[in-house]
Amino acid sequence: MKRNLIVLAAVLAAPIAFAAWPEKPVTLVVPFAAGGPTDKVARDLAEVLRKGLNNQTVIIENVGGAGGTLGAGKVAKASPDGYTLLLHHIGMATAPALYRTLPYKTLEDFEYVGMVNEVPMTLIGRSTLPANNFAELRKWIDANKGKINLANAGLGAASHLCGLLFQQSVAVDMTTVPYKGTAPAMTDLLGGQVDLMCDQTTNTTQQIESGKVKAYGVTTSKRLTTPALAKLPTLDEAGLKGFNVSIWHGIYAPKGTPKAVLDHINAALRSALKDADFIKRQEALGAVVITDERVGGAAHKKFVEAEIAKWGPAIKAAGQYAD
Regarding predicted confidence, which is higher, 189 or 153? Predict the structure, then answer.
């Protein structure tokens, strides 16, 4: 009887305890290097997310390496108290196909909080490329088979995945040059050391706007409305029928995080995604803030399951795996 009363008292007291959560800073792990597109999204989000977290500081921790799997693995093993969260992109769905072994189970070792945004991608080239539009680029690619360098930010990065599909679509194998992050890849593209890269608008818009790179198309099914990108054709209309790639970001917590804490984080996320300044910053980069049911954990998990089914066959067909 006494034990039952103690348990009942703990249950009744729980809402009060969770209402005070968080009582210290929350760490948002970004599984990529600082300065990259996912890091930019995380830092913009952190500024507004804290408003719904009792104004506690949201600390960004960059844990790069192994295509995002090191950072994701760290969060999967973290204490399930809500103080360590993960902001990850499409790599959450592609890692099961890219890696023979993972330090976590994508659909079992995390609590799905909700999606943040969807980010279109752009196919860009060094400023000295002779091709000025996609039609000319296609001819240049065909004329330079075996000589083309395609940069990416590392195995499993968004730029790697987009580049993989691009090579399959044009039926031309290119020399892929993986870097340890988006920043060094972009640096070499700007310097003319590599020819092409397909990367998120969050990382390419400013370079396109300044004329430091040549832009050949966007990867979405419809043209973008962002001023710097509005004149760019879609790769689909340029000739790559059915080419449609968007990079999305979502938030995750360690498995076993209390529902009350998850609900608190989700409420803070929903509020953040309605913040006018955050929306404006994302739109300026060509990103679309999520407003549909995928803001919720269950719908987001269902979406990731579909993405795993979509990307798995394409990655396995290319035969590109990590050790």
Answer: 189
